[in-house]
């Protein structure tokens, strides 16, 4: 057979999955059952009895006639199934790697598959292709019953995989599948007829009516007509993309309708691209196969032109699907599905087209995730998870790679031990995973670092993340190895992802940029580019982007380099700014979370015509990170809370405008006939100050939290305390840090109501205690419980701490805690710290507010706390009243101190601290060692739950 030998030229190993091989051998006799298992991921922290919500895992059971397989657990169902199949193959002694399929085998497989696709049995299945077989029977005249070969190659995965194995170029040029299918079909001459054009196939004998008109298929009224909106993408870049309507009738075949729209004689000549957009989408590009003559020379597939930039290439269409598309193309959403034999169809709008286009830009997915194409911008820095809105950088990068048919980005996190106050020393690289992988989850589960909520973690390691971007063929395009160190793995990953994305943005915004400039920009970001591979992958991009964005690209590059630039409004393209509302004095500062409402309209010079493009009642973003378009940020930073502004800017690239507004027709006619600009109106609704933790770290050296620990250590030393309980221990930062100091403590206990924080604390303490055998501590316990509630196990400790906790409770609970701790728990020493409200002025000033610090301003400001979770913040006076009353009531002495700031200098310490000392030491000791708890009778009930307990093993003591 001529076809057989000819296609052998490019044969390569067919990558059949284990499951596919099992299917080939056993068909429906292979029975897979997948069960979901919630495995607690406890291994790193023995004794922790809060179930750690691991990701859902799957286990697969595969039953074959002679073999039963049960797999380990996997993160994905598919992985579990493949693993089961792989195990089964091993058991059965089948080696897929060595059982290489020859071109001959492949051609045989192709013929077999094709034969099956034309069988009666297949027609009664629910395979989407059966819809085409039925649809083709409604074609008129000679075409009746003929199904375009391209349809087989597109909708039957098995067939398409065989074609790709025979000629890998099929993947990027679907047309190349046609000669392969045709030559296979000629071997089935007794049952399948190849049409004269060689572009379609038909079953020779008609299907028996009982099969064809099986009851499961409804015969619809043949006069029914449906109109479906689709998008026409002309091959010429000078022509606009436009909307077209396809009129389908249930008495015809939809491929012919598309052909007619494209000016092609019939559906046989139509090729189909892969699907676009979401995974479940049926949106594809339909285009004319480039001509019969190519089929003639196709006996040598290598001879078929596959230079993507040649001739009538449709750059826009090819860019979308990553496949070779010649001539005009139609983007439409049609399909027969497994569920229904009725043709599924969906209207596509121009807006959808432009949104699809925007999603392929580096920051496009982010803009769309915020539903704010004209306001949101992928921030240039990742600060805290808490203040991030929209898709995370890592996800944006992954989506970008997927949309451009690159491999998943390879993230590798390097953990470096952190010596005290020294980040600059060179450390040995520690790879957490051998294989580069994008699965961060498994890294995140490691106990090496805490992700504090409001508290910071000083100890442990720091992290650096490297990213490599590979093509599908595993050629390295670029790598990013920034030197920045982060306390959290996820921060290092997101920041590195942002670097890659901002480099890509620079390239996308200005594809004409000289290579040296790209390289030097890359250098700043720690990016190494492999230009040949990179430009090969993005060869089509310059043809889809709007040239007008090239204009301000250089400026963009500059902007991203100097983040702290002065905001000059005109530099940001803002003109005719009008501010409304009176100055409330509450100005946002860098690092704050701003909430604005805004709308953007397309306005035309001289005319009153306006078109609303985008609007949001509440839109949050972190100031100073470039999270919104620069004009908007420049204006908002000049507003005080409650004020509004109206301003105009010049038009961004056309596709952003079209992706934002719904009435594309109107927008296009505005933009083509008038001078247009964008008019933003924005109101600053409220401002949340930067998180306490960030402020404390930025403004105090050593950070306030560390100073608090040192304060406690001093008291532990002076009192030679052997037992300590930390009330409201959170993620255990104090307990953890105490272990770094040589202290006399033997028993340490933490209590908190946040089980999430307690789990973190357990992991951190476990890793430290397990690693250091020379620590004096013999026992460590974490309890889940409220510190306003009694539990006898916490009575009579040498020292108790309660740092930055009371302000998280209502004031009456703070008083209740005071009573409970000093009357019931009765530690010898109690240290309580809480923010000094009076000090906030200094914090706010230093946080970057440009306000003058006149007293009036400060007092007119709405009451600002350091943390959104604070219920109150007391002045020195308020704190002292609370503490003195308590001390007196319960027979304690109290002294005041603090950390941050200087004693006696206004406005006092940043964190104010009260140290209570029991006046009746002896009594407490008796209470603790004797039967003190029982004397209060009912108060001996154990109300706290032990959630983690550690005891030094006796051989270590
Ligand atoms: N002491 C820690 C954490 C301070 S954050 C540090 O200095 O880093 C405040 C903590 O108080 C949170 O972890 C919160 O869960 C806890 N908390 C608030 N109300 C509580 C209550 N009634 N009982 C126990 N813990 C409480
Ligand atoms: Mg606090």
TrEMBL record:
It holds the Pfam family Hen1_LCD. InterPro entries: DSRM_2, Hen1, HEN1_dsRBD2, Hen1_Lam_C, La_HTH, Methyltransf_12, PPIase_dom_sf, SAM-dependent_MTases_sf. Its cofactor is Mg(2+). Gene3D superfamilies: 3.10.50.40, 3.30.160.20, Vaccinia Virus protein VP39 (3.40.50.150). Residues 100-211 form the HTH La-type RNA-binding domain. It catalyses: small RNA 3'-end nucleotide + S-adenosyl-L-methionine = small RNA 3'-end 2'-O-methylnucleotide + S-adenosyl-L-homocysteine + H(+). Its EC number is 2.1.1.386. The keyword RNA-binding applies. GO terms for cellular component: cytoplasm; nucleus. GO terms for molecular function: metal ion binding; peptidyl-prolyl cis-trans isomerase activity; RNA binding; small RNA 2'-O-methyltransferase activity. GO terms for biological process: RNA methylation; siRNA processing. Keywords: Magnesium, Metal-binding, Methyltransferase, RNA-binding, RNA-mediated gene silencing, S-adenosyl-L-methionine, Transferase. It is an enzyme of class 2 (transferase). Belongs to the methyltransferase superfamily. HEN1 family. This is Small RNA 2'-O-methyltransferase.
């Amino acid at each position: 057979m001529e076809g057989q030998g000819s296609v052998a030229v490019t044969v390569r190993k067919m990558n059949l999955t284990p499951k596919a091989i099992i299917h080939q051998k056993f068909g429906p006799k292979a029975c897979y059952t997948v069960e979901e298992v919630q495995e607690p991921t406890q291994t790193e922290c023995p004794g922790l009895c809060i179930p750690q919500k691991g990701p859902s895992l799957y286990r697969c059971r595969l039953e074959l006639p002679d073999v039963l397989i049960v797999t380990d657990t996997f993160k994905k169902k598919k992985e579990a199934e493949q693993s089961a199949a792989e195990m089964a193959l091993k058991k059965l002694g089948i080696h897929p790697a060595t059982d290489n399929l020859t071109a001959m085998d492949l051609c045989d497989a192709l013929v077999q598959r094709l034969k099956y696709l034309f069988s009666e049995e297949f027609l009664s299945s629910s395979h989407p292709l059966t819809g085409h077989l039925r649809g083709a029977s409604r074609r008129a005249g000679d075409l009746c019953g003929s199904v375009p070969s391209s349809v087989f190659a597109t909708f039957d995965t098995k067939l398409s995989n065989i074609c790709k194995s025979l000629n890998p170029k099929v993947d990027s040029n679907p047309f190349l599948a046609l000669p392969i299918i045709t030559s296979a079909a000629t071997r089935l001459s007794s049952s399948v007829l190849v049409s004269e054009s060689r572009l379609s196939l038909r079953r020779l004998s008609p299907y028996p009516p009982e099969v064809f008109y099986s009851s499961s298929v409804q015969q619809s009224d043949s006069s029914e007509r449906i109109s479906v909106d689709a998008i026409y993408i002309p091959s010429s870049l000078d022509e606009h993309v436009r909307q077209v309507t396809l009129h389908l009738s249930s008495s015809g075949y939809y491929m012919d309708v598309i052909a007619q729209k494209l000016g092609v004689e019939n559906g046989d000549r139509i090729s189909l691209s892969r699907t676009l957009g979401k995974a479940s989408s049926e949106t594809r590009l339909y285009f004319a196969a480039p001509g019969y003559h190519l089929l003639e020379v196709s006996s040598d597939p290598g001879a078929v032109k596959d230079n993507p930039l040649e001739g009538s290439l449709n750059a826009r269409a090819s860019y979308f699907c990553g496949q070779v598309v010649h001539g005009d193309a139609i983007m439409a959403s049609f399909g027969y599905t497994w569920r229904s034999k009725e043709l599924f169809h969906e209207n596509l709008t121009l807006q959808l087209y432009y949104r699809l286009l925007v999603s392929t830009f580096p920051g496009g997915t982010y803009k769309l995730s915020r539903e704010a194409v004209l306001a949101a911008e992928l921030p240039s820095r990742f600060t805290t998870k808490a203040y991030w809105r929209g898709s995370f950088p890592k996800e944006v990068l992954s989506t970008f790679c997927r949309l451009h048919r690159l491999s998943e980005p390879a993230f590798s996190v390097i953990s470096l031990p952190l010596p005290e106050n020294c980040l600059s020393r060179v450390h040995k690289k520690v790879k957490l995973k051998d294989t580069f992988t994008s699965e961060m989850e498994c890294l995140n589960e490691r106990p090496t670092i805490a992700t504090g909520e409001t508290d910071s973690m000083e100890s442990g390691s720091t992290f650096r993340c490297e990213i490599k971007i590979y093509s599908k063929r595993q050629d390295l395009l670029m790598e990013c190895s920034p030197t920045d160190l982060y306390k959290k793995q996820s921060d290092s990953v997101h920041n590195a992802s942002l670097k890659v994305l901002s480099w890509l943005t620079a390239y996308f915004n200005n594809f004409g940029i000289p290579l040296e400039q790209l390289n030097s920009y890359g250098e700043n970001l720690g990016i190494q580019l492999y230009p040949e591979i990179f430009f090969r992958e993005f060869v089509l991009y310059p043809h889809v982007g709007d040239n007008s964005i090239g204009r301000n690209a250089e400026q963009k590059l500059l902007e991203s380099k100097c983040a702290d630039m002065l905001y000059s409004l005109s530099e940001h393209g803002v003109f005719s700014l009008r501010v409304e509302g009176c100055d409330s004095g509450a100005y946002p500062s860098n690092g704050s979370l701003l909430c604005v409402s805004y709308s953007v309209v397309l306005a035309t010079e001289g005319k009153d015509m306006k078109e609303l493009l985008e609007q949001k009642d509440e839109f949050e973003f972190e100031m100073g990170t470039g999270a919104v378009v620069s004009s908007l940020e420049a204006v908002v930073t000049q507003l005080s809370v409650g004020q509004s502004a109206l301003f105009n800017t010049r038009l961004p690239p056309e596709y952003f405008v079209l992706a934002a507004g719904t009435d594309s027709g109107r927008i296009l006619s505005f933009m083509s006939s008038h001078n247009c600009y964008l008019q933003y109106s924005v109101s600053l609704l409220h401002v949340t100050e930067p998180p306490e933790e960030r402020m404390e770290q930025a403004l105090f050296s050593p950070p306030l939290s560390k100073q608090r620990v040192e304060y406690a250590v001093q008291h532990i030393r002076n009192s030679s305390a052997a037992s300590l309980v930390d009330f409201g221990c959170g993620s255990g930062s104090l307990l953890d840090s105490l272990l770094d100091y040589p202290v006399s403590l033997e028993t340490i206990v933490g209590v908190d109501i946040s089980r999430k924080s307690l789990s973190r604390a357990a992991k951190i303490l476990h890793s430290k205690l397990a690693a250091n055998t020379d620590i004096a501590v013999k026992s460590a316990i974490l309890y889940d419980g409220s510190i306003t509630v009694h539990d006898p196990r916490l009575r009579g400790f040498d020292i108790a701490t309660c740092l930055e906790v009371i302000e998280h409770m209502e004031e009456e609970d703070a008083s209740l805690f005071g009573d409970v701790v000093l009357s019931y728990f009765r530690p010898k020493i109690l240290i309580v710290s809480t923010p000094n409200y009076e000090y906030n002025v200094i914090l706010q000033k230093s946080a970057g507010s440009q306000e003058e610090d006149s007293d009036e301003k400060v007092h007119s400001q709405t009451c600002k706390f350091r943390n959104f979770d604070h219920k109150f913040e007391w002045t020195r006076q308020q704190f002292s009243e609370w503490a003195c009353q308590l001390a007196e009531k319960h027979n304690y002495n109290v002294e005041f101190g603090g950390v941050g700031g200087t004693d006696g200098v206004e406005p006092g310490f940043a964190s104010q601290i009260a140290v209570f000392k029991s006046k009746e030491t002896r009594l407490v000791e008796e209470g603790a060692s004797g039967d003190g708890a029982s004397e209060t009778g009912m108060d001996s009930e154990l109300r706290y739950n032990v959630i983690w307990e550690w005891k030094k093993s006796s051989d270590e003591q």
